[in-house]
Amino acid sequence: MEASPCPLEVEFSNQIAALLAPPSSKSIQEYYDGLLHETKSHFIRVEFNENGKGVFSNRDFKEEHLVLKDQMLVAAQHSSNKVDCFVCSRCFCYIGSVEVQIGRKLYLESLGLTTMDCDHQSEDQSFLQENDDETGSSAHKNNSFSMDVLQLLMDGNLFLPYSKQFTLPTIVACPGGCEEEHYCSKLCADIDWDTVHSLLCTGKTSDSFRQAALVKFTEHANRTNDIFILAAKVISFTILRYRRLKRSYLEGSKQPILNEAEGQSNLCILSEAWKPVAMGFKRRWWDCIALPDDIDSCQEASFRMQIRDLAFTSLQLLKEAIFDVECAPCILQESTAW
Ligand SMILES: [Zn+2]
Ligand SMILES: [Zn+2]
């Protein structure tokens, strides 16, 4: 395999190897015991062996009984879905109102934005587009709604029959003031801000250099593969968790950290911050991505290198925006897959 194009990967090779090494059985056990304790999931146990992990209930349960409500670490709405559904950026429930959902979708379609435009490769989406064309129902082509009506729907000044029976949470804006993220509640907005979004926000709280760098990163991801958006969230999640852990470590520590021990101590904190991802990490994205049908198996090695180089380009763009030298080894895990 060719050498990595990334100089950081050479500089931090030992630290990266430590972060990507499979966690020990003891560490896995401790992590899940802690998680179950934290979430008060007393009737659940996690068992694991070399083949994988399994979640078991310790007691009988009936149909529709909630056994476990798991937390998402990070998630992203597919760009092709954003025209159709207006959802909370953290918990992904519908927000606004039925009128806002319908008005916004028709409005965006009237601007020429369709799910097809947002997704360059998906066969499913081209199927949708073809169907639209056949039936002549594409709002883009035959938009018979006036802008005034759509505006009334989006502003909440026009009501559709029975929509009050399907109320949705009021829209909460991003605390950083960007237009990309919206929430179902202040709670979701605050948690997303603290755990992921504050480093990726392009709103007024972010300086103009970072805003421009993030816009370039997002445009590249939308043009190539939006897994990079999810990867950026993983990195942001890890950096923010690292900073919180380090703050509490320094506050709790009576001894000042000596210079020579600082690097080691930072790596320990970074490993702890990375742990939730490490528990699910299997292989790097370019090593496990499925080979497309039109790529012959003899071209597999060069295909995987192309994918790795694409990830490297994305990483360069992201680094411009959110690089943190203490978390450098983790930013190289941008393309993790689990
Ligand atoms: Zn929410
Ligand atoms: Zn924001």
From TrEMBL:
Alphabetic keyword roster: Methyltransferase, Transferase
Gene Ontology biological process terms, A to Z: methylation
Domain of life: Eukaryota
GO molecular function term, any single one: methyltransferase activity
Listed PANTHER family: HISTONE-LYSINE N-METHYLTRANSFERASE ATXR2 (PTHR47436), SET DOMAIN-CONTAINING PROTEIN (PTHR47436:SF1)
Name of the featured protein: Histone-lysine N-methyltransferase ATXR2
Taxonomic lineage from the root: Eukaryota, Viridiplantae, Streptophyta, Embryophyta, Tracheophyta
Gene (UniProt): ATXR2
